[in-house]
TrEMBL record:
Protein name per UniProt: HTH-type transcriptional regulator
Pfam families on file: HTH_3 (PF01381)
Keywords in alphabetical order: DNA-binding, Transcription, Transcription regulation
Residue span, HTH cro/C1-type domain: 38-91
PROSITE patterns: HTH_CROC1
InterPro entries in UniProt: Cro/C1-type_HTH, HTH-type_reg/antitoxin, Lambda_DNA-bd_dom_sf
Amino acid sequence: MEYKEPIAELLSSLEQIVFKSESDTLVRTQKPASLTEFEQVRKSTGLKIDDFARAMGVSVSMVKEWESKRVRPSSTELKLMRLIQANPRLSKQLMD
């Protein structure tokens, strides 16, 4: 039997719930050349870098590393980013 990390499994389930209802209406916008993928995700949420870092459970320097492409987020962090992007109100709950 395969062991699955509980947090990763939870995020995966949440992602399926969020994107199942929005999969037909979700339109990805073309990112400006000056913004990295992760910077675009953060800015689309309307969160400042420190608030985004707190919602993600990482340091501001880690978010800067992602945005500069020096470090790639884990698959769990990527799923959480997509959930926050799809529902920015979720970030406020994660920060509490």
